[in-house]
Each structure stands twice: as structure tokens, then as C-alpha cells.
């Protein structure tokens, strides 16, 4: 993408390029990646875009190296990111746990594909558990953002570093093959004016004339780690209270509330149109943050007696969070799913809505 | 080399591209190993095009798991067979592309070689991540244009010379290290049969042309691979128990590197205006160093020496 001259300019790009450009305009100057389909256009774009903005592009020797390069650059105060797709994200998990344990901000983009194992390179949403439960070892979470358009992919990437730095935690943008590879018009926000490396109070920038700083996730003396975990828990509980974000579409009076994110949400929205055309009061709650999960709108709908239909490209992961959200107000929760590269059609979801209402 | 269908270890029907060097080399190596072999495969082109679900081209046992672990899986197979008393009757063959071997798989490969596991590891070197769409690898040559080392106004493409993987393997002190080429495909099968007689870890790197990634004529893959050797850019040799045996030098003498570079789209930018000529001089100097290393100072042709002199002069001027 040629850099648009003004914010008003509209460009046609893929979701992957939108994520890259969103990060660049948010001040990201360090990109570390490794080839894996279907996210290759993101590093490919970065390989020519980073030199243009005076940033660093490195294709590492493995996913593990890429996430560790992010660790290093983030520790030094840089806005650093990596991207990958499902199997590659699995390989990065050790690094993610260490980033969270070291309380470092960073951006990770997962363009999900079919699994498990090597799976295929088609659309999938089966990394939901991995993304929302931390993924690596230990008690931690990632702040997980789930766009459903190319524009939103840009917008969330543009905002991600602010969120990551405010909470000192890694942020994951969870997209999928279709969102990543399809093209849509994008109106990009302007370039943020930030130094390539910021002097955060914790950043390793050289200790001349000031006490040295240490970035670590290791606690040796008895009780130290427990104290650290207590503090981490408080941080994550604050995030759970303050950060959930969602979009509602005709959910206020809905008998059947669909819950879907990413590509599934686009299909679910069309299925809601179909159902409404048939006189069924259907609506959609689209989580934008997957962790923290937006329980409030679902609990509210449950209290007024709605039924729920979860649409996801996995055989049932987000449905657990939907059920947890209804805790205390048990309501029927159905699942409309396809997995392993299959994408549900509008007709399939509409049929699920009809069944859910009965 | 003709094979009867029933005897083929890698059956036809795989979905490689036209002129794929990896497919040719793999077919010949597999045939030399025979059906009483177990092949492990990195993620990559060869893994995909020989195993399109639900079919498989493999008439020998074959396993794929992760990208980075082909050598470790081969080691695991070796230990299990050894425990059953079936080594060395079965050949355990680890395989992978250049990215899967020299980048992400290097750790597992080094471990297998260092432990002395009785396996043969074959690296198909087509000099980039072709399966995912031609991204650079540690074995991408200097100045090659790839999707993550794009040539353009500010760049001549990949700005680092190729990693010397065979020498890294040789440094493990293993009994066999070899560098072969699909350009000399008739030599490949007899060579592998000979290698398999050696006990202990063995490493073979095969230079294979990728017409898609190199943007070259698929009909001329073998010719192009030979030119890589005949220009001195891709030295072929074997190190058998520490003794280095270079491939016989080209019959008609060493050739200028332009003859190898020019037919390839990935080097197209080197033949445009600007400072590209200096880059070719640099590549010619790399070839000169290779020829000197394996064939002695007298073997270096005059045009290659001239390139070295020109480069030294330019370095002096900037100093």
C-alpha cells in the first residue's frame, strides 16, 4: 500500500496489510516474523514498509526467535510486533508467557487457520481457547482483540500498543484467513508521532546516570512469586472490569441472540437479516474483546429471557464463555459450527436460528 | 534413470510445479534409499506435493510432524529401530528444505549430528521458503529478490551471503558431509547408495532449482543448476571422514557468474542501471573465493581475479 497522503484517502487492502499499516501508524518500528500461510502478505508488506519509516524488519529463523526478538525490542522500549498463523502461534507460546510474566507490551497478530497440527491454510477459529486463556504456562491472559472488517483490523492494530503499554501486557489481534486475505476499502488514521524507542520507566535503555532496571519473570525468594501473582491478578481483574468491548446489532429485543466474532460475525449478521425477514426476532452480540469477554450484554439478554446461538469455526470454544456469562440465569445455548477449514453459510446459520427458536 | 512404476519409491502423481528440482532430486534419492527406508519430512513443498490428502506418492514409510523437527523425528525413529535390533538394516532418512533445515530446524539437526545418530539427513536447497511464497531463508544467496527481501530503489534484495550449512555440519565432526546438485542428477542415486554404507550421522545438501521462486525457465532447471556449479557459486564436494573431495571441475572451465544470474528473474535487478555492476563484481568475487578454496589459487580464472582486484580497489577508495 502506498502511504496515503491524508487521513481522508481511501485505499483497498487486505486485512493483513491493514493490521501491518495500523501498527506502523501507531508507531510500531520493529517487526519480527517468520513465513506461514495465510499471513505472509503481512511480513512481505513490512519488509518494504519498515525501511520506509526507518524501522526494522527481520525475518527470523523461527517463530520462537521472532517472539524473542519482540521480547528484546519491547524490553528496550520499542513498539514491537510479530504475526503468524495457528501452528506458528503455538510455537510462540513460551515467548508469550514470558512477555506476560515480564509485563512487557507487544502486539501479536494471529491469522487463524484450520487445525489441529499442520491442519490446512483455510479459515478457522479454533485458537480461541489458546488466545483467551493465555496459551502458554502460568496464570496470565492476553488482551485479545477480534476485528471483523479490514477497517476494524486497522483500527484495533492502531490502538493496540496504547492498550498494551497502559496495561503492560501483550495484546493479540485474533483474525482469520478470510479476514486476513480479503480486500476491503480502508480509511487509515494518520501516523502517530512517537520516538522509535520510548523511555518508559521500566525500559532497558542504558543505565548511565540512573539506577539500572531489570526485566524478568523469575522470582526466587519464598513468597515473592506469590506476591507478584497477586499483583498480576489484580491487574487482570481491573482489565476485566474496564476493557470488555462489544457491538450489538438488533439484540435489544431479540428472542435469539447470536454470539459471533471475526468472519463468523459477518455471516451471523446476514443470517440475522434472513431471520428478521421471516419475522424471527434475532440479534447479534459481537465481542470485540475476546479476553476480557463481554459478559454483561449476554447476562442482560438472558435476564430478559433470550436464547443464545453461538456461531464459531471450531467445534465449540467461545460457547464456554457464553455459558459462563449466563451464570445464575441458565438459558438455552446452542452452537452453530463448522471447523477444519469450513466456513458456515448464511443459510446454515439461518437454519440454526430457526431451530434455536423452537 | 528409468524406473518401473512398481519399483518406484516416490510414485508419480505428486503435484510439484513444472521443472521442480526438488521433485527430481527427491525421486532419485528416494529410489537410491529403496522402500526399506523411513523418511521424515519437514513442512514444505515436498511434504505438501507428495502427500495431498487422501493420497500419497510415498511407497515407503513416511512421516511429517512439525516444521522444525524432521531431524529429531528421524532420531526418534532411529532409536526405536535400534532398540528393536533393526539398525542398520533400515535406512532412516531425514529430509527438509533449506528453511526447515538451516533456519528453524538447525537446532534439531545439530543435535542429531552431535549425538552420532545413524541417519542420513538430506536438505533440498532451493534457496528460499517456496511453499509459503518465496520468502528469504538463511540459504538465500546474496542479492536475490524474494518477497521478504524485495529488490527496489533502496535495496538489491537479500543483503547477506548464503549461510555455509555444509561447513556447519562438517564442524560436528560427522563421518559424511556432501553437497550435490540436481544439475548432475545422474550422479545422485549412486552417490546416495555409497553414502548409506557409512555408519553414523550423514548430511547431504542438494542444490535444487525452483523455477517459480527463481523466475527461471522450467525447461532449463538442470542446465541452470549446472551453471551454479560451473560459475563457482555453488561448490560441490564431499567431506568423507574429514577428507575433502571436490567435484571434478567443469570440463570447459569456470564461467562468469552473469551466465548463471542472467536467466533468473530473482537477479533481474542486477542487470539494470545504477550500481548493479558493482554488485555483480561482488558476486563474482564470492565465486572466486569458492574456486580458490576447493581447487587452489591457480584454478581461479582471470575474470574472477579481476573482479576481486576491482573490489579491493573500491574498498581502498572508500577507506
Provide a descriptive summary of the structure in words.
The complex is a heterodimer of chains A (358) and B (319). Chain A has two domains: 11-207 and 229-242, Thiamin diphosphate (ThDP)-binding fold, Pyr/PP domains (Rossmann fold, 3-Layer(aba) Sandwich); 246-357, Rossmann fold (3-Layer(aba) Sandwich), CATH 3.40.50. Chain A is built from 13 helices and 14 strands. Chain A has helices at residues 15-25, 41-52, 63-75, 86-91, 93-101, 128-132, 150-167, 177-181, 224-242, 262-277, 295-303, 318-325, 346-357, and strands at 11-14, 30-33, 56-59, 80-84, 106-112, 143-145, 170-176, 183-186, 246-249, 256-259, 282-287, 289-291, 307-312, 333-337. In chain A, the strands form three sheets. Chain A has a seven-stranded mixed sheet, with helices on both faces. A five-stranded mixed sheet of chain A has the order 9-11-10-13-14, with helices on both faces. The longest helix of chain A is centred in the middle third of the chain and has 19 residues, at 224-242. Chain B is an alpha/beta fold. Chain B has one domain (5-252): Rossmann fold (3-Layer(aba) Sandwich), CATH 3.40.50. Helices cover 38% and strands 14% of the residues of chain B. In chain B, the strands form two sheets. An eight-stranded mixed sheet of chain B has the order 2-1-3-4-8-7-9-10, with helices on both faces. A two-stranded antiparallel ribbon of chain B has the order 5-6. In chain B, β9 (237-240) and β10 form a beta hairpin. In chain B, α1 (21-33) runs parallel beside α7 (185-195) and α3 (70-83) packs parallel to α5 (106-115). The A-B interface holds A 33-37, 40, 43-44, 47-48, 51, 57, 59, 61-63, 87, 91, 117-118 and B 43, 64-68, 99, 103-104, 106, 129, 131-133, 135-136, 138, 147-150, 152, 154-155.
Amino acid at each position: 500500500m502506498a502511504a496515503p497522503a491524508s487521513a481522508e484517502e481511501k485505499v483497498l487492502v487486505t486485512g493483513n496489510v491493514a493490521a501491518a499499516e495500523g501498527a506502523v501508524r501507531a508507531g510500531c518500528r520493529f517487526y519480527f516474523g517468520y513465513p506461514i500461510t495465510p499471513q505472509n502478505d503481512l511480513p512481505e508488506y513490512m519488509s518494504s514498509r519498515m525501511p520506509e519509516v526507518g524501522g526494522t524488519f527481520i525475518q527470523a529463523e523461527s517463530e520462537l526467535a521472532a517472539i524473542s526478538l519482540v521480547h528484546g525490542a519491547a524490553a528496550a522500549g520499542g513498539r514491537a510486533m510479530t504475526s503468524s498463523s495457528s501452528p506458528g502461534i503455538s510455537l510462540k507460546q513460551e515467548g508469550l508467557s514470558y512477555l506476560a510474566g515480564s509485563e512487557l507490551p507487544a502486539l501479536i497478530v494471529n491469522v487463524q487457520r484450520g487445525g489441529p497440527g499442520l491442519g490446512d491454510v483455510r479459515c478457522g477459529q479454533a485458537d480461541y481457547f489458546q488466545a483467551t486463556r493465555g496459551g502458554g504456562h502460568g496464570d496470565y491472559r492476553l488482551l485479545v482483540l477480534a476485528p471483523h472488517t479490514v477497517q476494524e483490523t486497522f483500527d484495533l492494530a492502531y490502538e493496540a500498543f496504547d492498550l498494551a503499554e497502559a496495561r503492560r501486557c501483550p495484546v493479540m489481534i485474533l483474525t482469520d484467513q478470510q479476514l486476513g486475505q480479503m480486500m476491503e476499502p480502508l480509511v487509515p488514521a494518520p501516523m502517530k508521532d512517537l520516538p522509535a524507542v520510548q523511555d518508559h520507566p521500566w525500559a532497558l535503555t542504558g543505565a548511565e546516570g540512573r539506577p539500572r532496571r531489570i526485566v524478568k519473570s523469575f522470582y526466587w525468594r519464598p513468597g515473592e512469586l506469590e506476591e507478584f501473582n497477586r499483583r498480576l491478578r489484580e491487574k487482570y481483574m481491573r482489565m476485566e472490569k474496564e476493557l470488555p468491548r462489544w457491538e450489538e446489532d438488533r439484540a435489544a429485543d431479540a428472542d435469539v441472540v447470536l454470539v459471533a466474532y471475526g468472519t463468523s460475525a459477518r455471516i451471523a449478521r446476514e443470517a440475522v437479516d434472513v431471520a428478521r425477514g421471516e419475522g424471527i426476532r434475532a440479534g447479534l452480540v459481537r465481542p470485540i474483546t475476546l479476553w476480557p469477554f463481554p459478559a454483561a450484554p449476554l447476562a442482560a439478554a438472558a435476564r430478559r429471557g433470550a436464547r443464545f446461538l453461538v456461531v464459531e469455526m471450531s467445534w465449540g470454544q467461545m460457547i464456554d464463555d457464553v455459558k459462563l456469562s449466563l451464570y445464575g440465569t441458565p438459558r438455552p445455548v446452542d452452537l452453530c459450527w463448522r471447523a477444519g477449514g469450513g466456513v458456515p453459510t448464511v443459510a446454515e446459520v439461518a437454519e440454526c436460528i430457526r431451530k434455536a427458536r423452537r | 534413470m528409468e524406473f518401473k512404476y512398481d519399483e518406484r519409491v516416490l510414485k508419480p502423481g505428486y503435484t510439484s510445479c513444472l521443472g521442480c528440482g526438488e521433485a527430481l532430486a527427491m525421486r532419485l534419492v528416494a529410489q537410491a534409499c529403496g522402500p526399506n527406508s523411513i523418511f521424515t519430512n519437514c513442512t514444505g513443498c515436498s511434504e505438501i506435493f507428495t502427500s495431498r490428502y487422501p493420497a500419497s506418492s510415498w511407497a515407503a514409510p513416511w512421516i511429517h510432524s512439525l516444521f522444525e523437527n524432521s531431524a529429531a523425528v528421524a532420531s526418534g525413529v532411529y532409536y526405536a529401530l535400534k532398540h528393536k535390533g533393526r539398525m542398520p538394516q533400515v535406512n532412516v532418512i531425514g529430509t527438509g528444505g533449506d528453511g526447515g533445515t538451516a533456519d528453524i530446524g538447525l537446532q534439531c539437526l545439530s543435535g542429531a549430528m552431535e549425538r552420532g545418530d545413524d541417519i542420513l539427513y538430506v536438505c533440498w536447497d532451493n534457496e528460499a521458503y517456496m511453499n509459503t511464497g518465496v520468502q528469504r531463508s538463511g540459504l538465500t544467496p546474496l542479492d536475490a529478490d524474494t518477497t521478504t527481501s524485495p529488490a527496489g530503489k533502496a535495496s538489491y534484495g537479500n543483503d547477506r551471503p548464503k549461510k555455509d550449512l555444509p561447513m556447519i555440519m562438517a564442524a560436528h565432526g560427522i563421518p559424511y558431509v556432501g553437497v550435490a546438485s540436481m544439475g548432475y542428477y545422474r550422479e545422485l542415486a549412486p552417490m546416495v547408495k555409497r553414502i548409506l554404507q557409512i555408519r553414523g550421522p550423514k548430511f547431504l545438501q542438494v542444490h535444487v532449482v525452483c523455477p517459480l521462486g527463481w523466475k527461471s525457465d522450467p525447461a532449463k532447471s538442470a542446465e541452470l543448476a549446472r551453471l551454479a556449479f560451473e560459475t563457482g557459486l555453488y561448490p560441490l564436494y564431499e567431506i568423507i571422514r574429514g577428507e575433502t573431495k571436490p567435484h571434478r571441475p567443469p570440463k570447459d572451465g569456470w564461467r562468469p557468474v552473469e551466465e548463471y544470474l542472467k536467466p533468473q528473474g530473482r537477479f533481474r535487478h542486477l542487470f539494470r542501471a545504477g550500481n548493479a555492476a558493482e554488485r555483480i563484481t561482488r558476486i563474482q568475487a564470492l565465486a572466486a573465493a569458492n574456486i580458490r578454496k576447493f581447487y587452489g589459487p591457480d584454478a581461479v580464472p582471470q575474470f574472477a581475479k579481476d573482479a576481486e582486484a576491482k573490489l579491493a580497489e573500491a574498498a581502498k577508495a572508500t577507506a
